[in-house]
Design brief:
- This protein is α/β, with parallel strands linked by helices.
- Helices cover about 40% and strands about 15% of the residues.
- The chain is built from 16 helices and 15 strands.
- A seven-stranded mixed sheet has the order 5-6-7-8-4-3-9.
- A hairpin with a 2-residue loop joins β11 and β12.
- α5 packs antiparallel against α6 and α8 packs antiparallel against α14.
- The chain is flat.
């Protein structure tokens, strides 16, 4: 195709996954659009180097990018596009005598330009990154110059999408890129980095290889029964399927924990009025966010905050004190407190240890049934009249079955003296991530799409077991094994449609 047509229409082709892929040159701002020390404009595509070369000049007015080596950095200036009508196509170059002698008047910014040639770049295409000053106006003007030189504005996630379609990363790694960007806690970042390094990808590929081996064996035996015998194969396959199911089940079971790693633990602080809920929240935050007074019912609505404890994210809701009240506004706050508690991953139940347990404390017990709960005996700096044995007795009386409150931890604290907080943090860590935080390279499912695909794999393997149990012909095994193989492929992007890929990458930011 002539260069002019390539420049006007761009190039599209079907990649190895059968999806339409564009190879035209794209550009976008890769850093946050705000006042900062540095702003980065990323350019990628088969004409990325030539595009930036049209507007980049050294201090001596030289255009050098088309001749430089890959993975080198160059100092110079971005200048307003100097192209003439005779040199309007991306592959054309501008002769030195066509460059105005007063080109410096068009300087937009002083920059450093990085050149990374295919396939050794983020997208596996020619890529150029322009490091300019980080002001909002100057970054926009540099991007406008790149677009005027022949690039088009990238779609959300298009750089990472090209990396996926070019085979540099699989779909799990692509999704991990966005998880890294959105990580709100150390444990979420660590989990995302493990996935980005390929832990999940490697696990899925290994599982696919095991399934594929059985498919190939069955097909080979059916095609060549004289040389490949299926005698005793049902028993061998049954044992293999049992092992695969065990591995898949372990991954599925990790999804609940993975969700907490990624999104944080939804935590609700409950208790009757004036037990120190707001003081405790302020202590966790390290600042005075919640109003604290001696007047019962001060907190009338919910207050939501995000907190990081030992690298773990907590989405904390401080609620109104739960009690019977005639005040309509306070009653709405109480109803909201109960609503949030019913949906919580963790309930923090504060009790004033300096006063006897009462009806309000006992009524709150109903909220902790089947919930992970940490009961904090607060105000231990005063004379304590409530001990752990009193709490256990109350639970026995108010919660019908012991197994409904077996995940309850009881800890003594003083929000005033700031004591017992380390014990509380350790309890949260043990309750949700016991043995996980220190375990390296363990695969944890953090994506709902992955979980659903694994559930499908598990069902397909159960169908194989049923066929074996019913003594069905071996080709029936192959059908369900192929379904399992395809479901595993959807996780890493080997068996996905273009619509799903577009949906995944549409959630990315523009420069990624």
């Amino acid at each position: 195709m002539p260069n002019a047509e390539r420049a006007v229409f761009g190039i599209c082709f079907h990649d190895v996954k059968g999806m339409i892929m564009r190879t035209d040159t794209i550009a976008a701002i890769a850093t946050g659009l705000s006042e900062a020390g540095i702003g980065i404009i990323r350019v990628s595509g088969e004409n990325a180097v030539n595009t930036v070369d049209r507007i980049f000049f050294t201090g001596k007015g030289q255009r050098i990018l088309m001749t430089v080596k890959s993975h080198t950095i160059h100092y110079g200036y971005i200048v307003a596009d100097l192209r003439k009508d005779d040199f309007c196509h991306e592959k054309d170059t501008i002769p030195s005598d066509a460059i105005p002698s007063d080109w410096k008047k068009g300087i937009i910014d002083e920059v450093m330009v990085s050149v990374m040639k295919a396939p050794h770049s983020y997208t596996a295409e020619d890529t150029v990154e322009i490091n300019c000053h980080g002001g909002i106006l100057v970054v926009r003007r540099v991007l406008e110059a790149v677009l005027a030189a022949g690039a088009r504005l990238a779609e959300p996630g298009e750089f990472t999408k090209r990396a996926f379609l070019n085979g540099r990363i699989d779909l799990t790694k692509a999704e991990a890129v966005m998880d890294v960007i959105h990580s709100q806690s150390e444990i979420a970042l660590s989990s995302s980095m493990d996935q980005l390094k390929g832990n999940l990808s490697e696990e899925i590929k290994n599982l696919r290889a095991e399934v594929l081996y059985e498919i190939a064996f069955i097909e080979s035996a059916l095609d060549d029964p004289e040389h490949i015998s299926l005698d005793g194969y049902r028993e061998k396959l049954s044992a293999k399927i049992e092992g695969l199911k065990s591995e898949i089940y372990k991954l599925i079971q990790s999804a609940d924990q993975g969700k907490l790693m990624k999104e944080g633990i939804n935590t609700v602080i409950v208790g009757k009025p004036n037990v120190g809920k707001s003081s405790f929240l302020n202590l966790l935050l390290g600042e005075e966010r919640a109003i604290v007074t001696d007047i019962a019912g001060t907190t009338r609505d919910v207050l939501q905050e995000s907190i990081i404890l030992r690298g773990i994210g907590l989405n904390v809701v401080d609620t109104a004190g739960i009690r019977n009240t005639e005040d309509k506004i306070e009653q709405i706050g109480v109803e909201r407190a109960i609503h949030f508690a019913q949906k919580a991953d963790l309930i923090i139940f504060l009790i004033d240890a300096s006063v006897p347990l009462d009806k309000s404390d006992r009524e709150i017990c109903s909220l902790i049934e089947m919930k992970n709960t940490i009961i904090l005996l607060n105000k231990t700096d005063l004379n304590c009249v409530v001990e752990e044995k009193d709490i256990l007795q109350m639970l026995k009386e108010e919660v019908s079955e012991e197994e409904k409150w077996k995940d309850v931890r009881i800890i003594k604290i003083s929000a005033l003296d700031q004591t017992g907080i380390d014990d509380f943090e350790k309890a949260v860590e043990d309750m949700f991530f016991q043995g996980r935080l220190s375990s390296e390279h363990e695969v944890v499912i953090t994506n709902l799409r992955h979980k659903e695909a694994l559930q499908q794999v598990y069902e397909d393997l159960e169908m194989v077991e049923k066929s074996i149990s019913d003594e069905m012909p071996e080709d029936f095994y192959s059908i369900d094994l192929m379904d399992a193989y395809a479901a595993l492929g959807r996780i890493i992007g080997e068996e996905v449609g273009e619509d799903l890929v577009n949906e995944i990458f549409s959630k990315f930011c523009m420069g990624k």
